[in-house]
Amino acid sequence: MKKDDIFTKVKEVLEDVPEARESDSYLCFKFYQKINPKFRPSQGSPMTVNDFFQKLHNKDLPAMATVTRVKRAVMEHYPELEGKNRKAKKTKGVEKMVTWVLKKKNDEPQIRSARRTLNGHN
Question: Are 4 and 11 in contact (CB under 8 A)?
Fold first, then answer.
């Protein structure tokens, strides 16, 4: 499967299933359902766990790491698709950086830069 196709499908899952924004495992599950009809067949028997891992091994399905890496790329292009957890982590990281700068450094330009970053003015 081409990376552009993976990007498109991951984006569709993130748009259609907001819960997938919060869990990489759930994202992978919904992604594989979308690209492989045997994951949730309307007719016939479903894919077995053995078949699933065999397909991963044979590269008939994109690796889970690929799906989660593409998820991050999608979120870079479409920040509105970020989950609540990711937004909180980003904010917390910026706050930690500002706290460190304010406590450890007495450098006015760094303090101004940290405050601009915290306020969203890169």
Answer: no
Task: Note whether 27 and 67 are within 8 A (CB).
Answer: yes
pLDDT tens sequence across 80-93: 888 877 655 566 66
Structure tokens at 51: 């078949």
Q: What is the DSSP letter of 43?
A: S
Question: Residue 37: how many CA atoms within 13 Å on its side-chain side?
Answer: 4
Helix ranges (DSSP H) in the chain: 3-16, 24-35, 49-57, 64-77, 84-104, 108-118
pLDDT recorded at residue 28: 93
Q: How far, in Å, CA of 27 to CA of 34, rounded?
A: 10
The terminus-to-terminus CA distance of the chain in angstroms comes to 36
